[in-house]
Specification:
The complex is a heterodimer of chains A (846) and B (228). By secondary structure, chain A is α+β, with helices and mostly antiparallel strands. Chain A contains 24 helices and 21 strands. In chain A, the strands form 2 sheets. A 6-stranded mixed barrel of chain A has the order 2-3-8-5-7-6. A 6-stranded mixed barrel of chain A has the order 12-14-19-16-18-17. The longest helix of chain A has 54 residues, at 241-294. Residues 336-342 of chain A have low confidence and may be disordered. Chain B contains 7 helices and 10 strands. In chain B, helix 4 (116-126) packs across helix 5. Classes of the chains: A alpha+beta (846), B alpha/beta (228). The A-B interface holds A 1-2, 5-6, 9-10, 12-14, 287-288, 290-301, 381-383, 385-387, 389, 391 and B 11-12, 45-46, 48-49, 52, 54-55, 74-75, 78-79, 81-83, 87, 89, 91, 93-98, 102, 105-107, 109-112, 152, 155-156, 164.
Chain lengths: 846, 228
């Protein structure tokens, strides 16, 4: 009863001082609830849309044309199940305008038949309805980007694979294609019949053949199972919308857990705020606690009173966070995600699970971070009322145990939010390491400025004394603000370093243009065309013969894989590999086991030789002497492993292959070639070369490395933006902690200021003291954060990315300056009271 | 009522032991009023704090009603204070966030009494602050705050009232009123009153005096002993 009443009375008087407590919690909880709810909403919207995403109930696909007997089989199965189907083919190719001098572009071509799509809608620009007749007989539907890049619009004609197509409509959205995903070029739709009249789909070209299936739901599972059985030992795959649904579920779960970790980091920073508020709160309450003890209250009762207050405040803060989340979710509808998913409508709203998780975490963090400072309640001696003995009690076992328990609980919380042990632990260790570094750096820096306390200037001397005195919140502010600037500077520096490195790579002699799908009879023509436009001194273009092959069996000492089905169980070993053949090692290769052949082998051998890359040997346990069976475009080939190679993947000039065959047998199989070379520096010359190549060999795709760089830059920019947003949130919570720290210690500052004023200090002088104090604090926080960020960037550049490190003094200096100004302004502004309060009232009140 | 046996207190002062109370033995009988008198730093308040169990002695035993309080745990001490001891401080030490009435209720609520509110009002009447119950300490004058503190000290009908310079922070007129109130309460309720003061005039009104200097008792006397 006593405890209950006291909680009520205490809250009545202390809630104002604890407003900051629940702001800390509210922001973190708001972040968690918002992020989770948005993901839940998007996920819900997509859950019903799995069919739309694959435009069918099931999709049969293969990287090569379906063999005739398999097609018969599929047709029979579909008829049996009462299913309909429509074919489609996707491939990357080059497009140019009709005029001879027109520019060329790489596009992602998709050929469809009447009937596509079974689910979802093709959305055309201007609200024009989609009809297959738009494609039939030489029609094309293209993305607006292509229109912009080639300067061609509806009614103009384009050349694809040597055939003319008329642009009949512009495409806004198509089922199953997400915007923002990496792509080689804009989408172009044509009809299947027209595609077959081009030179594009020849034996061995790189295309995905699909068959979209519509089937009554009752028959779907049986059909999928039956076809999967038929596909044993072939390269065709079938995928139903249900599997798609599962995949989407997993993707979203991962996204949700990552974003929640961001929220958790913010809550933990809020928790640091909570901890400092609680510590100051207990300090202010010491007298009242002593009085209550003096009239008979037990420590446990007092602890219960204050813990219960923390629960109430944590709950209020969490509720406020939920309200914040509600406002955010409803006022910023789809600001970030709205455009990412055309064709799917998303209703944003808070979800019960997000709300309950947010509130749960808000409460847990409030309690966890408040409990250690609250345990000080037990040390308050009632004898304080008689004489002010500030004997500091040593940390007792209870408190140490509480700290350990709190740390353990935080680890559990993080693992829960990350949805994974590994990621949770990595985050915790990362946070701890960063916090410890910043903490130590903070201690060193505060000590480093200590000599300034002997300065002759009043403002500097007192500012430093304020920062260095016991009970100052300087270190916590350093930690929070430093962490924020660490995030921002770190990711920016990394981005700059990465992009500069890419730019350098492109500008040196390394190849920056790539050719794929060259037929073997086109190699000489292509080489000639390139040589004629290359700048003087450029290295010879590399045109490497390639074939596509699958491993269908292994007879080895350690590994026995009888059939293709067995290979499939080994995961990536079953994928289609691009392989080559040559008589010698490349300059970026070295043999680490066995011996490489020195010349071509006999062309009539039953078993040829193959050299495997190190990772294949390690991952799958294949060793020299083992026999491997391959399927090379439908033809079986047996090869003995004669060597294991190590490839320096960083040296891209010579390419890298998992499997290299001995020439002799394999070169009799039909093969194509890929090429890489240094294009001309002048961009007009590059465009001319592309046009020439497309005219000469319409099936060859030309990829310009400079354009890829632009695409990569786009992705890096997006990631940078995302991390910068997180970093800004961290800085904001750091500033909140600063404001809180200022208002927590204000009672003391106001009193001191009153004394200074009585002794003759004017308001300008007091302002100067505060400005120097917070400016110094900001300077330290900025330097620590930027310094740590540079360290991190150096480490990542040096050890993970293997690129040279650049210090970026402009970025670093700017960040430090910005932090200094920000902290100074916020610190002085929130101390306004200290400056304006009249001294007499303050002194009389004390 | 109170018995001290060889009680001393040594504190650590900058790494050196500092004796603030030399071994002291004394007895105070129930129903007496006793003043502890001496200059600042003579150990008066320390002695009072030890008797109240607010602090533990370095050596010796303290008995309250025959119970050795030096053997009690923190919580048992708290319970003993709630039941047997009322405390009045020089700086009043009311809880600033509670109203006058609530400040008086607290000890009774801790003891689990259900009539806390009614009794608190009666005590407020007894100290002459009938209509000030809803005021916060900051809204009361020093004299009024000390009256609330006395009412709080009486809340659980303790047999022992300890007062630390109860008039030290008040002007002489208010001080006189508080002193009268304390003595009146002592007589009416038959409690033992131990009061720390440095004012010989105040000490003169009590039954007995314990004179402290430099942590030692330098003399004690009955009613007839001359006040120092």
């Amino acid at each position: 009863m006593f405890v209950g009443r006291m909680i009520q009375r205490e809250l009545r008087s202390s809630w104002r001082r604890l407003v900051f407590f629940f702001i800390c919690i509210a922001i973190g909880v708001g972040a968690i609830v918002t992020l989770r709810s948005v993901i839940h909403s998007v996920r819900q919207a997509f859950a019903g849309e799995a069919r739309t995403l694959i435009a069918a109930d099931a999709v049969i696909s293969s990287n090569r044309e379906f063999p005739a007997e398999l097609t018969t089989r599929i047709t029979a199965r579909l008829a049996e199940a009462g299913a309909q189907s429509t074919r489609s083919v996707e491939l990357a190719t080059m497009v140019r305008g009709e005029a001879a001098e027109s520019r060329t572009r790489m596009v992602e071509l998709k050929a469809v038949e009447d009937g596509f799509p079974y689910y979802g809608r093709m959305t055309l620009a201007g609200g024009q309805p989609y009809d297959f007749r738009l494609l039939a007989n030489g029609g094309a539907i293209v993305r607006p980007e292509l229109e912009a890049q080639l300067g061609l619009g509806v009614g103009n004609r384009i050349v694809i694979g040597g055939r003319l197509f008329e642009i009949r409509a512009l495409l806004d959205a198509e089922p199953g294609r997400r915007l923002g995903a990496f792509s080689l070029g804009p989408r172009v739709f044509v009809s299947m019949a027209d595609l077959e009249q081009t030179t594009l789909v020849s034996f061995g070209s790189r295309a995905t053949h699909q068959r979209l299936v519509r089937v009554p739901d009752a028959a779907l599972d049986a059909l999928v199972t039956a076809l999967r059985g038929d596909f044993t030992d072939t390269f065709a795959r079938i995928r139903s919308y249900k599997a798609q649904e599962d995949d989407i579920g997993e993707d979203f779960e991962r996204a949700e857990n990552y974003l929640s970790l961001v929220g958790l980091v913010i809550v933990i920073l809020g928790g640091i705020g909570v901890s400092s508020v609680t510590r100051v709160f207990v300090q202010q309450k010491i007298k009242a606690i002593a009085v209550l003890k003096c009239v008979g209250a037990r420590s446990s009762q007092l602890l219960a009173i204050y813990l219960a207050q923390v629960v109430v405040l944590g709950l209020l803060g969490s509720i406020m966070g939920v309200v914040l989340a509600w406002i955010t979710v409803h006022t910023v509808p789809g600001l970030l995600l709205g455009a990412a998913s055309p064709g799917v409508t998303i209703t944003y709203g808070l979800t019960p699970s997000a709300v309950s998780q947010g509130v749960g975490i808000g409460l847990a963090v409030s309690l966890l971070f408040a409990v250690v400072p609250l345990l000080d309640v037990r040390h308050v001696k009632p004898s304080r009322l008689l004489r002010d003995d500030s004997v500091r009690e040593p940390r007792d076992w209870w408190q140490l145990a509480a700290i350990a328990a709190v740390a353990a609980a935080l680890v559990v919380l993080t693992i829960w939010q990350a949805g994974s042990w590994r990621i949770g632990l990595v985050v915790i260790v990362g946070l701890l390491a960063t916090a410890a570094t910043l903490h130590v750096a903070g201690l060193v820096m505060v000590r480093a400025i200590a000599p300034l306390a002997r300065s002759r200037r009043f403002a500097v001397r007192h500012a430093v004394l304020q920062l260095a005195r016991p009970g100052s919140q300087a270190r916590i502010v350093l930690l929070a603000v430093g962490l924020g600037s660490f995030f921002i500077v770190g990711v920016r520096a990394l981005q700059e370093n990465l992009l500069q490195q890419f730019a350098l790579d492109v500008s040196t002699e390394s190849p920056d243009m790539f050719l794929i799908d060259i037929q073997s009879d086109q190699v000489d023509a292509v080489r000639g065309a390139i040589r004629s436009v290359q700048d003087a001194g450029s290295p010879e273009p590399m045109l490497i013969p390639v074939l596509r092959a699958r491993v269908t069996g292994v007879e080895g000492r350690d590994l026995q894989l009888e059939r293709y089905e067995d290979v499939r169980e080994r995961g990536s070993l079953a994928r289609e590999y691009t392989v080559t053949f040559r008589p010698a090692l490349e300059r970026n290769e070295q043999v680490i086991q066995g011996a490489f052949w020195s010349e071509a082998g006999p062309s009539d051998a039953e078993v040829t030789d193959v050299s495997i890359e190190e990772s294949v040997a390690l991952r799958f346990g294949i060793a020299p002497g083992d026999l491997m069976r391959f399927d090379v475009l439908g033809r079986p080939l047996t090869a003995r492993v004669t060597s294991v190679r190590r490839v320096n993947w960083g040296d891209s000039r010579a390419g890298g292959f998992m499997f290299v065959f001995r020439p002799g047998v394999i070169d009799r199989a039909p093969h194509g070639a890929i090429g890489f070379f240094k294009g001309p520096a002048d961009s007009n010359a590059r465009a001319r070369l592309q046009a020439t190549l497309v005219q000469l060999t319409p099936n060859v795709s030309v990829i310009d490395g400079r354009e890829i760089l632009q695409a990569v830059k786009g992705v890096v920019d997006n990631v940078t933006l995302a991390v910068t947003v997180v970093g800004s949130l961290v800085v904001v919570s750091g500033l909140l902690i600063l404001i809180g720290a200022v208002s927590m210690t204000k009672f003391r500052r106001v009193y001191e200021a009153a004394i200074f004023k009585t002794l003759g200090a004017g308001r300008p002088l007091m302002t100067a003291v505060l400005t120097v104090e917070y400016g110094l604090l900001g300077l330290l926080a900025g330097s620590i954060g930027a310094g740590a960020a540079l360290g991190l960037t150096w480490g990542i550049s040096r050890f993970a990315l293997d690129i040279p490190f650049r210090a970026l003094p402009g970025l670093t200096g700017g960040a430090i300056l910005a932090t200094t100004v920000l902290v100074a302004v916020v610190g002085v502004a929130s101390s306004w009271d200290v400056l304006t309060r009249k001294p007499l009232g303050t002194l009389r009140g004390e | 009522m109170i018995a001290l046996r060889q009680v001393s207190k040594v504190v650590d002062s900058g790494g050196h032991p500092l004796t603030i109370l030399h071994p002291l033995t004394l007895d105070i009988a129930a129903g007496r009023s006793v003043s502890i008198i001496g200059p600042s730093g003579s150990g008066k308040s320390t002695l009072l704090g030890l008797i109240a169990g607010l602090d533990a002695p370095t050596t010796g035993q303290i008995f309250i009603d025959g119970v050795d309080i030096t053997a009690l745990s923190e919580d048992a001490l708290a319970a003993l204070r709630g039941e047997k001891i009322g405390f009045v401080f020089q700086f009043f030490h009311l809880v600033p966030s509670l109203t006058a009435l609530e400040n008086i209720q607290v000890p009774m609520e801790i003891a689990g009494r259900s009539d806390a509110k009614a009794r608190a009002q009666a005590l407020l009447d007894e100290v002459g602050l009938h209509d000030r119950g809803h005021h916060y300490p900051s809204q009361l004058s020093g004299g009024e705050q000390q009256r609330v503190a006395i009412a709080r000290a009486l809340a659980n009908d303790p047999p022992l009232i300890l007062a630390d310079e109860p008039t030290g922070n008040l002007d002489s007129a208010n001080g006189r009123h508080i002193l009268d109130l304390l003595l009146e309460v002592k007589t009416r309720r038959h409690v033992t009153l131990v009061m720390v003061t440095h004012d010989p005039a105040i000490a003169a009104i009590t039954d007995e005096r314990i004179v402290m200097r430099d942590g030692r008792s330098v003399g004690e006397g009955g009613q007839d002993a001359p006040a120092q």
